[in-house]
Write the structure tokens for this entry.
Amino acid sequence: MRKNLLHIWHKELSYEIREIVEVAKKIENFWINISWENIWDPVVKWEKIPLWMKEIVKNASELDEVYWYCPTRWLESAREYIASKTPNITKDNILFFNGLWDAINKVYKSLAFDSRVIWPNPAYSTHSSAEASHAWSSHITYSLNPNDNWNPDLLELENKVKYNPNIVGILVVNPDNPTWAVFSKQVLESIVSIAKRYDMFLIFDEIYEKLTYNDEDRVLLSDIIWDVPGISMKWISKDLPWPGSRCGWIEVYNEDKDENFKKYISSILASKLLEVCSTTLPQFVLPEIYENENYKISLNKRIENYKSRAILAEEYLWDLKEINLIKPKWAFYLSIAFNIDNLNKDFIPKINNNEIIKIIKTAISWSTRFDKKFCYYMLWKTWICSVPLSWFNSSYEWFRITLLEEDKDKFKYILTTIRDFILEFKK
Ligand SMILES: Cc1ncc(COP(=O)(O)O)c(C=O)c1O
């Protein structure tokens, strides 16, 4: 080519959640039965779509209007429904996207390239790569502290904001992925107050708000934002669950409080106009699904299941010195951090199949991170597929499994196997 085609960011773009799956699929070719504990999609793992929900979608599919382009912002009926459930917004403050990825991308890309959003470390990679890629620059982060229930380091956040005038926004993911923390009202209000004092806006990714183990933990940006400009991101992927719907939206708060913020939101809408609209069917059925009497019942049942598996996992793993089990407050995931000083990091488990050794060694050849090696070795030795978490722009070494396994005996077997495998690295 006459000129380099690649964006400087291309080297950083990887999606570890799927990369380990590619390797596990190659191992499956040797007639090996993999335990898919990496899965990020509950429907793929076990969860059945309830019949009442299928019935609503089936009835809607008979109507011609769900096959049309819908308005750019989304169907009036869906926006009116959401506005009626959210304080201080109207339907005009809501804009729909093809999944959250679409929203995240447009929100960051519409910012001036030297206007930065500071985000948590660790952070969900879709946000971090989209923000850094918009700025053609490296990350600006504030720390979440594992020794303080993953609470944000508010002093660090305030200092970074104070001394870097390019920071115009703060991202908060609450409930958080990948720490599975849920932040208290007090913590969230402190962040809102920093944004107010330094004349900034807020982005709250609140897509998991309906999945917290305890109702009283749930504090939304719309409840605490006062007059600060802000964006909340929501979706239907995991609470219905319907990840393949690619259906998310943003709610904009206090758009009229700042002329510059208002223009920024208009520019997000303009970039959505170029795309015409988002998928029609999921938005069409959304109000009917949420209003169905069975919705709350099936959601609560799922949450109870995740919570009881989190308690079981704790029973199996809490006493290991080699790890630090981080108790989730929501979610169908469990994160396990390594106590690196208590581990033999150079240990390599033995295996007989040379072909599999070759596949694994190629996959981890360039990596220096212990958590990545651990997950790939665990795949090779125990056939359990997990996800290394340092990839979430994280300075910690840790990994995650899901809490989706419905067969209690199998889940216990998985926990015992992971426990034994961790102990192989004992110093
Ligand atoms: C916190 C968070 N934000 C955004 C996304 C991306 O959402 P989508 O799959 O709708 O693109 C995810 C996906 O799991 C997520 O966990």
